[in-house]
Amino acid sequence: MQTEKIIKPPSGYLTLVIFLIMLTGGIYLMAIKSFGWASAILVIDFILVLPGLIIVNPNESKVLILFGKYVGTVKTDGFFWVNPLTSKKKLSLRARNLNGQQLKVNDKMGNPIEIAAVIVWQVKETAKASFSVEDYLQYVNIQSEAAVRHLANSFAYDSLEDESAQITLKDGADKVNSLLEDELNERLSRAGIEVIEARISHLAYAQEIASAMLQRQQATAVIAARKLIVEGAVGMVEMALERLSEKEIVTLDEERKAAMVSNLLVVLCGDRNAQPVVNAGTLYN
């Protein structure tokens, strides 16, 4: 695997001055009819001097190759002169966004889900990006999709499917994003790519089971709400009986206590407002 070698070539301004001097000299020699010398100077000027001038913009690099051999990479921005026989490949070092497409995969429990991720990445080692893979852009796309699929297969969508799961795709966003970022860095290191950030941008059940899962979630929410209501109602009934006993407002036998508890629970746990019924007789009639 090729190792990146950073080089800093000489400034191109001196070479530019030499180019202009030789150009002026060649034109002068042509003017005085010395075509042989003029041709030689102009050929050297345009073939050996001018092609060696390069401009490197900020957050860009130039990979230099001489007769099939990697010479080095220029990462410093500026105006330089390099060996004119080298081929120069420009690589951007800027951060890029990959907005992954929505993938339909199965989670750990086998449920079909839709998942997509947004990945921020940049070229870290230009030599690996140029020589270790055929096309580093395509490599990033394919490996990113593979990493997202593997992540979805490793965890359940939520804790309803796997109650023992410590991490789920829905509830463990920070941990899941961290695991995705680590796996992407491992996969893309061969191509000299560094992943700056990776986040799940879309997560949902697939359409064929979305309706059933929604009903299940609603039922779970209703059960949880009912449980809370019952716990509160039992506490209120217990408090009412204790207060009646402490204040000695009324003395109830076990049968009447049971009836009172039943009536209070119906009032407190019912979906609709209770309709009061006035008892004009005694407690036992």
From TrEMBL:
Membrane-related topology note:
Single-pass membrane protein
Primary residence:
membrane
> Domain of life of the organism in this record?
Bacteria
Indicate where this protein resides in the cell.
Membrane
Please list the residue ranges annotated as the Band domain. 51-217
The membrane spanning regions, by residue number, are: 12-31, 37-56
Which SUPFAM superfamilies does the record cross-reference, listed alphabetically? Band 7/SPFH domain
Pfam families xref list:
Band_7 (PF01145)
Q: Which Gene3D superfamilies match?
A: Band 7 domain (3.30.479.30)
Which InterPro entries does its entry note?
A: Band_7 (IPR001107), Band_7/SPFH_dom_sf (IPR036013)
Q: Which UniProt keywords apply?
A: Membrane, Transmembrane, Transmembrane helix
Which SMART domains is this protein grouped with? PHB
Q: Which CDD domains match?
A: SPFH_like_u2
PANTHER family hit by this protein: BAND 7 DOMAIN-CONTAINING PROTEIN, MEMBRANE PROTEIN-RELATED
Which named protein is this?
Answer: SPFH domain-containing protein
Taxonomic lineage of the native organism: Bacteria, Pseudomonadati, Bacteroidota, Sphingobacteriia, Sphingobacteriales
